[in-house]
Structures are given as C-alpha cells and as structure tokens.
C-alpha cells in the first residue's frame, strides 16, 4: 500500500484506525448473534422435520381407507400461508404463523366419521411442510448475511486495521527521521555559525 509520508496522512490513518476499531466490535457481535440464531433455527428445523415424518407415518396408516372417502386433496391446498417478520441483528427473517385452508364441505350423512380425523392429520402435514419451508428460507437468509458479516470482520481484522497501524508506524518513523535530520542540520548550521563567529573574533 502506497501512502503519503505526511502529517496530514498520519491524521487520516489515525482517524481511519479509530473508526475501524470502533466498528469492529459491532460486526463481531452481529456475527455471533447470527451464528447463534442459525444454530437455534437448525435445531427447530430438525424437530419440525421429525414431527413431519411422524405425521407422515400416521397418514400412511389411513391411506387404505381413503378409497372409501371423498377426494380430500382439494381441501389440502393452502388458501393462504401466513408469515410474519422478525428482526435478527438488523435482518428481517420470515416467521411462520399458520396455513389457512378453505372449509371442507362434504355430506356428513354419507361420509365416514374418520374423514375429519384424516383431513386434520393431512392438513397438519401440509402446515408443517410449509413451516419447514419458511424456516429453511430464514436459515438461508441468515447464512447469507453471516457470510457477508464474516467477510467484513475479516476485512477489518486482517487487512484494514493492520494496514492502518503499519501506515501510522511508517509515517512516524519517517517524520521522526526527518526531525532527527532537521535537528542534525540545525546543529551543523549552528556549529558553522559559531565557528565563523570565533574566526571573526580571532581576526
């Protein structure tokens, strides 16, 4: 990195270093928060996925009976997927709330009683599947932000701060040498003046 070896550049580098060192802890905290939230969301995802597979097994036990019932697939299509947003370390992450379905309308007199239970089970599966998708989307957003934040932390820690410190050190050495040289020149000039004065006195 080429820098100007001047007092103005020294001030600029010192100001930059202060800014980097002030901003770095905020970035490090954000990185930590994102990492913790990703771990938390991945744990939730595992639990939800396990629940989904358990309900799937239950639903498979009903599959043989469904041939005697009306086609329930039409009542399993989500009418609306409701999700809110939660702010995590300055990032909006989707949070699943619920799935709305159209009311199931069938003849209660000719439809077996267990159809209600089957429909509830299958709707739970659909809701869980949509919740898993929302969580996966949230984790993806968090991971993307973590990558960016980690890059910034590394940029500050490994490049910007060391560069600024090195520039300050080099400018200080240079200006120190300049001052030493100036003092040396001043002494030489003073000695020459004193010698000239003493020569005049001798004459």
Question: Your description of this structure?
Answer:
This protein is mainly alpha-helical and 203 residues long. 71% of the residues lie in helices and 11% in strands. It contains 2 helices and 2 strands, in the order αββα. The chain has a two-stranded antiparallel sheet with strand order 1-2. The two termini are 58 Å apart. The mean pLDDT is 84.
State the main characteristics.
203 residues, mainly alpha, two-stranded antiparallel ribbon, 2 helices
Regarding quaternary structure, what we see is single chain
Task: Write the H/E string, N to C.
Answer: HEEH
Strand order of the largest sheet: 1-2
Binned, the helix content reads over 70%
Residues in β-strands, percent: 5-15%
What number is the mean pLDDT? 84
Q: How many beta-strand runs?
A: 2
Count, helices? 2
Poorly predicted sequence stretches spanning 5 or more consecutive residues = none
Largest sheet: 2 strands, antiparallel
Which helices and strands appear, and what pairs or packs with what?
Blueprint lengths: L6 H56 L15 E11 L2 E11 L12 H89 L1
Antiparallel strand pairs: 1-2
Helix pairs in contact: 1-2
Short recap of the structure:
By secondary structure, the chain is mostly helical. Helices cover 71% and strands 11% of the residues.
């Amino acid at each position: 990195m080429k820098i100007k070896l001047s007092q103005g550049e020294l001030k600029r580098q010192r100001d930059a270093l202060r800014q980097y060192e002030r901003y770095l802890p905020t970035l490090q905290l954000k990185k930590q928060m994102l990492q913790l939230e990703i771990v938390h969301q991945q744990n939730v995802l595992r639990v939800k996925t396990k629940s989904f597979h358990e309900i799937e097994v239950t639903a498979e036990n009903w599959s043989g009976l469904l041939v005697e019932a009306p086609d329930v697939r039409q009542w399993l299509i989500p009418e609306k997927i409701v999700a809110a947003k939660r702010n995590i370390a300055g990032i909006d992450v989707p949070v699943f709330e619920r799935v709305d379905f159209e009311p199931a309308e069938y003849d209660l007199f000719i439809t077996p009683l267990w159809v209600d239970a089957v429909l509830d089970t299958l709707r739970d599966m659909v809701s869980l599947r949509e919740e898993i998708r929302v969580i996966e989307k949230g984790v993806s957003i968090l991971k993307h932000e973590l990558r960016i934040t980690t890059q910034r932390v590394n940029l500050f820690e490994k490049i910007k701060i060391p560069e600024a410190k090195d520039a300050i050190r080099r400018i200080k050495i240079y200006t120190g040498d300049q001052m030493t040289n100036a003092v040396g020149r001043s002494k030489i000039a003073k000695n020459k003046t004193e010698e000239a004065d003493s020569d005049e006195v001798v004459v």
